[in-house]
Amino acid sequence: MLQSTDNTPKPHFTPSTLNPVVPVKTVTSPIEQATIGRSLVIKGEISGSESLYVDGRIEGTISFKEHRVTVGRNGVVAANISAREVVIMGKVTGNIECSDRVDIRSEGSLTGDIISRRISVEDGAMLRGSVQLAPAEKPEKNSRGDAPKAMAAATGK
Would you give the DSSP letter of residue 20? Predict the structure, then answer.
């Protein structure tokens, strides 16, 4: 008969021999982001509560108020976009309303109007439309409540 010459004992794994201190690694993406692939065509209204990456075609409206919308190099969008941040590397036709920033990369093009706090347009990018920069909203100071206290302190009351 054939027998192994290796006589070293083999460890026998049972649930009780597992080390409970070592955490189990799970595979998660560092950024939660929905992706519209290059072969997809969507017509209609798109909204969500995570960031969106578009490498396909979209016609309609895109609304991701608290998140980022990225139009990839292969992306073609004919839609109005409302988001916290918009990054354009493909082609966009439509108006953009951003609460933070619009970034048009060198290979990107936008035909439409922009309303945003900040904008970045790289050399080689194309922009046809108007740009309206809105200042960041500052919290209002309660000057009415502070004035009587200041007056009282100054007069010694």
Answer: T
Q: Supply the DSSP symbol for 142.
A: -
For 50-99, the pLDDT digits (tens) are 999 999 999 999 999 999 999 999 999 999 999 999 999 999 999 999 99
3-state SS assignment for residue 16: helix
Q: Give the list of residues 6+ apart from residue 147 with CB closer than 8 angstroms, or none.
A: none
Please give the structure tokens belonging to residue 102: 């619009």
CA-based nearest residue to 55, from 40, 68, 65: 40
Identify the H or E element spanning 152. Answer: helix 143-155
* CB 100 within 8 Å of CB 83: no
